[in-house]
Amino acid sequence: MTTPVPDDSAAALNRVLSEVIDVIQEVKQADWKVPKTHELHGKLDQLLSDLVRWKTLLGDRDQALGVSPLSFMPSAEGRKPLNLWPGSPTDEEVLALVDEHLSRLEDHVSVAREEQLDERSRMTLAEV
Question: Is 126 exposed, middle or buried (0-12, 13-18, 19+ CB in 10 A)?
């Protein structure tokens, strides 16, 4: 059995989905490193909630297009987690890294929106 190759627009969606999954893992790690009583912890929790919602939106869009995203990328469980901070990071270090990864995600979303032939896919990416 061969794995089907998605068209360019579905591949672009999957690249964004893969990036969202990576950022989820990174934000989870940041969230674990920040004390629960810290103000930054609440912001990371909200960001994590948004990322999970985006992951669901993109996965649902893939399903609607008849594409199984896990046919083309590893699941969150199949990814090797990075140790972003071997010790206790400062708030600035956490914010700088999360901001860098969100900027990368924003770039991927922008490129993917341009590649979409389907209006619903463009709308889904606009929500991200």
Answer: exposed
Which helix (H) or strand (E) element contains residue 99? helix 91-115
Q: Quick count: other Cβ atoms within 10 Å of Cβ 100?
A: 11
Alpha carbon distance 62, 70 (integer Å): 10
CA atoms of 125 and 76, how far apart (whole Å): 20
Q: Is pTM beyond 0.90 here?
A: no
First to last CA, the chain: 34
Q: How far apart are CA 128 and CA 116, in angstroms?
A: 14
pLDDT in tens, 99-121: 998 999 999 999 999 989 889 99
